[in-house]
Amino acid sequence: MRLGAFAAFALLAACEPPGYGRHTGADAASSSGTDGSSSVSPDAAVDGAPGCNHSFRVADEQTASSVWLSGDFVQWAADPSHGAIAFALQADGSWDGSYTFAAGSYQYKFIINGTQWIPDPTDPDTVPDGFGGTNSVYVCTP
């Protein structure tokens, strides 16, 4: 019986996509560049596949205590401990962050103060989110 449970676990683990569950530690940790922005690379970019390092800026949230980036590329993580990308507050009151995407199309939103999910107000490319709102869309074509 124990061998059967182990075999089932091994089979399930073998079915996980590359990078599954690795949104902690070095894979999801933010690193500050010289400009104070955070940057994280997905597995595809780490493996040498071409990608796009895209910078984001949220300018109208000077009173926010946090701004995070989430989307289908991080399984819609709701906070940085689960893979959302934390932005850095800039001296001018804006929030900046970046992410390196593998080639493809991605849906995303910003999370303000850990609870308010908003589309990117500067990105006109949107799709319905299935809940009566919209998701912003970013397309990486390296």
Structure, explained:
- This protein has 142 residues and is mostly beta strands.
- The chain has a single domain (2-140), classed as Immunoglobulins (Immunoglobulin-like, Sandwich).
- It contains two helices and eleven strands, in the order αββαβββββββββ.
- The chain has helices at 2-14, 43-46, and strands at 31-32, 38-39, 51-58, 67-71, 85-86, 88-89, 95-102, 104-112, 116-118, 126-128, 134-140.
- Strands 4, 5, 8, 9, 10 and 11 form a six-stranded antiparallel β-sheet that branches.
- A hairpin with a 5-residue loop joins strand 1 (31-32) and strand 2 (38-39).
- The longest helix has 13 residues, at 2-14.
- The radius of gyration is 17 Å and the shape is globular.
- It starts with a helix and ends with a strand.
- Residues 1-46 have low confidence and may be disordered.
Secondary structure elements and pairings:
Elements: H1 2-14, E1 31-32, E2 38-39, H2 43-46, E3 51-58, E4 67-71, E5 85-86, E6 88-89, E7 95-102, E8 104-112, E9 116-118, E10 126-128, E11 134-140
Antiparallel strand pairs: 1-2, 3-7, 4-5, 4-8, 6-7, 8-9, 8-11, 10-11
